[in-house]
Write a structure and sequence with these properties.
The complex is a heterodimer of chains A (about 210) and B (about 375).
Chain A (H helix, E strand, L loop, with lengths): L3 E6 L4 H10 L6 H5 L4 E3 L5 E6 L4 H6 L5 E5 H7 L4 E5 L5 E8 L10 E5 L2 H10 L4 E5 L6 H5 L4 E6 L3 H5 L2 E10 L1 E5 L1 H6 L1 H20 L1
Parallel strand pairs in A: 1-3, 1-4, 7-8, 7-9
Antiparallel strand pairs in A: 2-3, 4-11, 5-11, 6-9, 6-10
Chain B lengths: L16 H20 L3 E2 L5 E3 H8 L1 H4 L4 E3 L5 E4 L4 H9 L9 E10 L12 E10 L3 H18 L6 E7 H10 L4 H12 L3 H8 L6 H10 L3 E2 L3 H8 L3 H19 L6 E4 L12 E7 L7 E5 L13 E7 H12 L12 E5 L6 H13 L3 E5 L3
Parallel strand pairs in B: 1-5, 7-9, 13-14
Antiparallel strand pairs in B: 2-4, 3-4, 5-6, 6-12, 7-10, 8-9, 10-11, 11-12
Helix pairs in contact in B: 1-5, 1-12, 5-11, 6-11, 8-9
Classes of the chains: A alpha/beta (about 210), B alpha+beta (about 375).
C-alpha cells in the first residue's frame, strides 16, 4: 500500500517532474509510464502517482484524494486552492503576462477587453490597478483573440515568447513569475507527517543535485 | 431563465435514514461528553447583527455570512459562528454569575461563501464548548482533554491529530519586524502555506539578515513534539514570542502528563484561523477528511467588546465532517431502509378494526416496544 498519493500535472511539466523525482531517488519504471494507466506506483512502492490535467491537481489535493501534487504556480494562483506549498521545484519556469499588439495603446475610458485562460488572475491584476475590464474566457489559442479583434489584449503564460511574436503580439506587463510547486493537503501534512517530510527532503536533495550538476 | 423548483441551493443538502441516525448519534455522544465535563447547553439566536460577527470573527470571516437588512436598516446575518454570541451573553446576561462559565452548543452555522473548495457545505452543524473566566494552561488543557475524549468516544482513537500553536509567537515576530496590517497578513499567508522560499523573499524587504531570513523560514516547517520548542528558541529572540513559547512549553508539559502527547503535535507554522484568538490555537484533523474537522483556542479579548474583558478558551467540531468520516468508515450507507431489530409489525387484517390495531400499538408503546403498523394488507 503506497504511503502517499501524488498528483502530477500532465503536459509541459510532466517529463521535468519525473526527471526531478528520479534525481531525488523516486523512480517510475519506463514500462509503467508507457502503459496507459493513469495511476502508477514508483519502484519502491511508497508512492502512487496519478497524472491529471494541471488545473485538476489542486482539486485532487484540496479534497485530500491526493496527499501531494506537483503543479505550476500559475494554476495555483488561478484556482485559489487552500493548500500548503512547501517547495519551489524550480522547473517549468514561465511568466504570466499581459500581451497586446505591438504599439497598441489601452483605451482611456470604457472597459479593456481581456481574453484569457486565467480569468481570476486577470481580474485581480486589473482590479488592483482600477482598470475596468471585460474578461473573455477562452480555453485555448488565446493569441488569436487580439488578432481577430475579439479582445484588446490577452493574459497568458509566456515561456519563450515565440508564439506571441509570430502573431504580432508583445508582452507589455509581467503579472507573475511561475514555476512548479510541491503542494500538500493540509490534513495529510498533519496526519502523515513522516511520509510527507520524507518526500520534501528527497525533493530538496534532488534540487540541490540539479544545481550541482 | 426560470429555475426549476426541484433545484437545491449549492452547499445545502438533506440527511436521511442511516446517515441521519449516525449524525444524531454523533451529536448525542459529543453532547454527553460536554455534559460529563459540566458544560451547560446554550442556544444562541440564529439571526443576529452583522456587527457582532464583524467584531467577533473579523471583517473577512463575517462577510462570508448570508447578510440582509432588518426593518430599521441595520445589517443582520444568519449566524456564521456561535462563539461571538456566547461571548456577548457571558459579558451581559451572565455578567453576575460565578466564574468560570462553561457553555456548550449544537447549532447550525451558515456561510454564503465556503472557506475552501473542499468544504462544500454552506450549512454546518457546529458542536462546541466555551470555558469563560479562567486563564492559564489548566483551562487550555481541560478543553484539549474534552476534545480528546470526544474523538476517543467516536472510536477515532488512532485516527486523529490535534496540532497546537500560539498566535503570540507569530504576533511577536511581526511586531518585531514592525509590519503593517497588509504586510502582516501577507506574511501570515506565507507561513500558513509553508512557503519557505517566498517567505525568505518577503523578509528580504525588511531589516533582516540572511541568517535571520533562513531561520525564520524554518519556522514554517517546525512541527513535532516538545523538542521543537528548543529549536524555536534558537531562532526567535523577541520577548513577546518568547513568553508565548514558555506558555506553550508549560501546556506541553501538562499534555505529556495526561498522555495526550501521542495525539498532539506542536506546529508553529499553523497560523490560519479566526482573528479572535489571542494565545493558544489548535486544529483537529481526522484521517479520511481532507480538511480539518475542528479547532479552537484562547480568545481573551472577545468579551471586552461587550464591556467585560476576561480570559476564555473553547473549540468547535464540525458534525457534518465527522459524520462523513464515520459514514465512510462504517460503510452503512446501504441500510437506509432498516428500522431496527426490535420492531413488531402489526398487520392490518380485514377482520380487525383499525382502532383495535391502534389500541394494541399503544399498549406495546407503553411497554417501550417499537411498532410498525402496516396499512398495506
Amino acid at each position: 500500500m503506497p504511503e502517499l498519493t501524488v498528483a502530477v500535472a500532465k503536459g509541459r511539466m510532466q517529463d521535468e517532474t519525473l526527471e526531478l523525482l528520479a534525481r531525488s531517488g523516486v523512480s517510475v519504471s519506463g514500462s509503467a509510464l508507457k502503459s496507459r494507466r493513469l495511476a502508477i506506483e514508483d519502484e519502491s512502492g511508497a508512492y502512487r502517482f496519478v497524472f491529471v490535467k494541471p488545473s485538476d491537481v489542486p482539486v485532487y489535493v484540496e479534497h485530500g484524494i491526493a496527499d501531494c501534487g506537483v503543479v505550476g504556480r500559475d494554476v495555483l494562483l488561478e484556482s485559489a486552492a487552500d493548500l500548503l506549498q512547501p517547495l519551489d521545484l524550480r522547473i517549468g519556469f514561465c511568466r504570466i503576462a499581459v500581451a497586446t499588439h505591438a504599439g497598441q495603446s489601452r483605451p482611456v475610458t470604457g472597459a479593456l477587453r481581456v481574453a484569457t485562460k486565467y480569468p481570476q488572475i486577470a481580474a485581480a491584476h486589473f482590479g488592483a490597478r482600477g482598470v475596468p475590464v471585460e474578461i473573455i474566457e477562452l480555453s485555448g489559442s488565446v493569441e488569436l483573440a487580439p488578432v481577430l479583434g475579439l479582445a484588446d489584449c490577452i493574459v497568458d503564460l509566456v515561456e519563450t515568447g515565440r508564439t506571441l511574436s509570430e502573431n504580432g503580439l508583445e508582452v507589455v506587463e509581467v503579472i507573475a513569475e511561475s514555476s512548479a510547486r510541491l503542494v500538500v493537503n493540509r490534513a495529510s501534512y498533519q496526519l502523515k507527517p513522516t511520509a510527507v517530510s520524507r518526500l520534501i527532503e528527497a525533493l530538496s536533495r534532488g534540487l540541490r543535485k540539479g544545481v550541482a550538476g | 431563465m426560470i429555475e426549476p423548483l426541484s433545484k437545491i441551493p449549492g452547499g445545502m443538502r438533506y440527511y436521511f435514514g442511516a446517515e441521519a441516525r449516525l449524525r444524531r448519534g454523533v451529536e448525542d455522544t459529543i453532547m454527553a461528553v460536554f455534559d460529563g465535563w459540566s458544560y451547560e447547553e446554550i442556544t444562541t439566536p440564529c439571526v443576529d447583527y452583522l456587527a457582532l460577527f464583524e467584531r467577533g470573527m473579523g471583517y473577512e470571516a463575517a462577510h462570508r455570512a448570508f447578510r440582509f437588512t432588518d426593518g430599521d436598516g441595520l445589517m443582520l446575518a444568519l449566524r456564521p459562528d456561535v462563539t461571538s454570541s456566547v461571548a456577548r451573553a457571558a459579558a451581559t446576561l451572565f455578567a453576575e454569575k460565578t466564574r468560570p462559565l462553561r457553555f456548550c452548543y449544537a447549532s447550525p452555522v451558515f456561510h454564503q461563501r465556503q472557506l475552501t473548495h473542499a468544504e462544500w457545505r454552506r450549512e454546518n452543524k457546529q458542536l462546541g464548548c466555551e470555558l469563560i473566566g479562567v486563564g492559564g494552561r489548566g483551562a487550555e488543557a481541560e478543553t484539549l482533554s474534552v476534545a480528546a475524549e470526544i474523538l476517543a468516544a467516536l472510536n477515532l482513537g488512532g485516527d486523529y491529530r490535534i496540532t497546537i500553536n500560539s498566535v503570540e509567537i507569530f504576533s511577536g515576530i511581526s511586531e518585531h519586524l514592525t509590519l503593517d496590517d497588509a504586510e502582516r497578513e501577507r506574511m501570515r499567508q506565507l507561513v500558513d502555506t509553508r512557503d519557505a522560499a517566498e517567505l525568505q523573499k518577503f523578509l528580504s524587504h525588511f531589516d533582516t539578515t540572511e541568517r535571520e531570513r533562513i531561520s525564520f523560514s524554518r519556522l514554517t516547517q517546525l512541527s513535532g513534539k516538545g523538542e521543537i520548542l528548543d529549536e524555536a528558541r534558537r531562532i526567535i529572540t523577541n520577548p513577546r514570542s518568547l513568553v508565548a513559547l514558555d506558555e506553550l512549553e508549560s501546556l506541553w508539559r501538562i499534555v505529556r502528563a495526561l498522555g495526550l502527547d501521542e495525539v498532539c503535535d506542536i506546529d508553529l507554522g499553523d497560523v490560519s484561523g479566526l482573528d479572535y484568538y489571542t494565545g493558544l490555537t489548535f486544529k483537529i484533523y481526522v484521517a479520511g477528511a481532507g480538511a480539518r474537522v475542528g479547532g479552537g483556542g484562547r480568545y481573551d479579548n472577545l468579551t471586552a467588546n461587550f464591556g467585560r474583558a476576561e480570559p476564555a478558551v473553547g473549540f468547535v467540531l464540525d458534525l457534518d465532517a465527522l459524520t462523513d468520516v464515520l459514514m465512510r468508515k462504517k460503510g452503512v450507507a446501504t441500510s437506509d431502509e432498516t428500522v431496527g431489530a426490535n420492531v413488531r409489525a402489526l398487520h392490518d387484517k380485514a377482520a380487525i378494526e383499525p382502532s383495535e390495531i391502534l389500541v394494541d400499538a399503544r399498549v406495546r408503546r407503553a411497554r417501550g416496544e417499537r411498532v410498525l403498523i402496516n396499512y398495506a394488507g
